[in-house]
C-alpha cells in the first residue's frame, strides 16, 4: 500500500484551474495558460504522503530551486516566469509559488548519479550495471562512481516506483538527438551543482531533472528548458560530506529523522504492512524542519528567514 493517507482538496482560486495534486506539489493553470506550481509542506517517506506536515518545507524547496536556477542560468534556461502569488490566492502561497512556462515535457526522468545507492545499488548488485551501464567491481553502498552517469527513468503514477531504463529506451522514445541533449545537459548541470555543493560540505549523490520544450508555436521550439523543481532534498540525495563512509547507508540531509522514526519501535508502524503511517511526533517534525533549513542555509549561504 502507498499514496495519500488523505488526499488534500485543491484550493479554489478564481482564474485558476486545478490540474494535478502531486505528493508534494499542487498544480494549477492560470488564465494565460501558465502553470502555477505550489509547493506544500507535505512530506513523503516509504512511498506514503504522511499525515503530518513539515512547516516551511514548501517554501524552502521553492526558494532553493530558485537559487539553483540562478546558479545554472548560463548552462540551461528554465521554466520560471514569476514567483508572484496569483491574485485571489491564499497569502500562505507566498514563497511557495512558481509561475512557469507551460512546456511539452520530455517523458523521461533525467537522473544523474555520482555515487552508488538506492535503485542503482540494487541493479549493480544483480548485474554490476546501472541502467545497463557497466561499472567496475567492488563498489559498495555510497561509493563514488568513476565518473557521473546518466541513469534515466520513466515516470510512474503516484504510489508506483519510477523505472530505470537503458539509454536506448530514451532514444527510442524521444529520438537519438534529443536523448543525447538530455544526457549531455543532465550531466553538465549535475557536474556544476555537485561542485557547488561540495564546496559547502554537501555531497550531491544523485539528482533528478525534468526537461521540456516550448510549445510548437514559440520562437525556438527546440530549446531545451529545465523544468519542475531542481536540486532540492526531495529530488536529490544530499549527504553531509564529513559523515560520508561507503559501505553503509549514508545519513541523508533531509528526511532521515522521518525515516528513522517511522522505521523505529516508537512509531509502532510496519512499513511493509497495509496500514498508513501514523502522525509524526513534534520533535521529529522540528528536527526535520531544521535539516531542510540547514540544507538551504549551507547551500545558499543565506540565513533562512
Ligand atoms: P510526485 O509527487 O511523485 O513528484 P508528480 O511528479 O506527478 O508526482 P509533481 O511533481 O507535484 O507530481 O507535479 C509536477 C508535474 O508538473 C510533473 O508531472 C512535471 O513533469 C510537470 N511539470 C513541471 N514543470 C512543467 C512545465 N514547465 N510545464 C509542464 N509540466 C511541467
Ligand atoms: Mg514530480
UniProtKB/TrEMBL annotation:
The keyword Ligase applies. Pathway: Purine metabolism; IMP biosynthesis via de novo pathway; 5-amino-1-(5-phospho-D-ribosyl)imidazole-4-carboxamide from 5-amino-1-(5-phospho-D-ribosyl)imidazole-4-carboxylate: step 1/2. CDD domains: SAICAR_synt_Sc. InterPro entries: SAICAR_synt/ADE2_N, SAICAR_synth, SAICAR_synthetase_CS. It catalyses: 5-amino-1-(5-phospho-D-ribosyl)imidazole-4-carboxylate + L-aspartate + ATP = (2S)-2-[5-amino-1-(5-phospho-beta-D-ribosyl)imidazole-4-carboxamido]succinate + ADP + phosphate + 2 H(+). It holds the Pfam family SAICAR_synt. The keyword Translocase does not apply. Residues 19-272 form the SAICAR synthetase/ADE2 N-terminal domain. Keywords: ATP-binding, Ligase, Nucleotide-binding, Purine biosynthesis. GO terms for molecular function: phosphoribosylaminoimidazolesuccinocarboxamide synthase activity. Residues 264-287 are annotated as: Disordered. Its EC number is 6.3.2.6. Belongs to the SAICAR synthetase family. PANTHER family: PHOSPHORIBOSYLAMINOIMIDAZOLE-SUCCINOCARBOXAMIDE SYNTHASE. This is Phosphoribosylaminoimidazole-succinocarboxamide synthase. It comes from Streptomyces durbertensis. The gene is purC.
Amino acid at each position: 500500500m502507498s499514496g495519500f493517507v488523505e488526499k488534500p482538496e485543491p484550493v479554489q482560486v478564481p482564474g485558476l484551474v486545478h490540474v494535478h495534486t502531486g505528493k508534494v506539489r499542487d498544480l494549477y493553470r492560470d488564465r494565460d495558460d501558465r502553470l502555477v506550481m505550489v509547493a506544500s509542506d507535505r512530506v513523503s517517506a516509504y512511498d506514503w504522503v504522511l499525515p503530518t506536515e513539515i512547516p516551511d518545507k514548501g517554501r524552502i524547496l521553492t526558494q532553493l530551486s530558485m537559487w539553483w536556477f540562478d546558479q545554472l542560468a548560463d548552462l540551461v534556461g528554465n521554466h520560471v516566469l514569476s514567483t508572484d502569488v496569483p491574485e485571489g490566492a491564499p497569502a500562505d502561497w507566498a514563497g511557495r509559488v512558481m509561475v512557469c512556462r507551460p512546456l511539452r515535457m520530455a517523458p523521461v526522468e533525467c537522473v544523474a548519479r555520482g555515487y552508488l545507492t538506492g535503485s542503482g545499488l540494487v541493479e549493480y548488485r544483480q548485474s554490476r550495471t546501472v541502467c545497463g551501464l557497466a561499472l567496475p567491481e567492488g563498489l559498495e553502498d555510497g561509493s563514488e562512481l568513476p565518473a557521473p552517469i546518466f541513469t534515466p527513468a520513466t515516470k510512474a503514477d503516484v504510489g508506483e516506483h519510477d523505472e530505470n531504463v537503458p539509454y536506448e529506451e530514451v532514444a527510442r522514445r524521444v529520438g537519438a538527438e534529443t536523448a543525447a541533449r538530455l544526457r549531455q545537459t543532465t550531466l553538465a548541470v549535475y557536474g556544476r551543482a555537485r561542485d557547488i555543493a561540495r564546496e559547502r560540505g554537501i555531497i550531491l549523490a544523485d539528482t533528478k531533472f525534468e526537461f521540456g520544450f516550448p510549445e510548437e508555436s514559440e520562437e525556438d521550439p527546440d530549446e531545451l528548458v529545465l523544468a519542475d523543481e531542481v536540486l532540492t532534498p526531495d529530488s536529490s540525495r544530499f549527504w553531509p560530506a564529513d559523515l560520508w563512509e561507503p559501505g553503509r547507508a549514508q545519513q541523508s540531509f533531509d528526511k532521515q529523522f522521518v525515516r528513522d522514526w517511522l522505521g523505529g519501535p516508537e512509531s509502532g508502524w510496519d512499513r511493509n504492512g497495509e496500514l498508513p503511517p501514523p502522525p509524526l511526533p513534534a520533535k521529529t517534525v522540528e528536527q526535520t524542519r531544521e535539516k531542510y533549513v540547514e540544507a538551504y542555509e549551507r547551500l545558499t549561504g543565506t540565513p533562512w528567514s
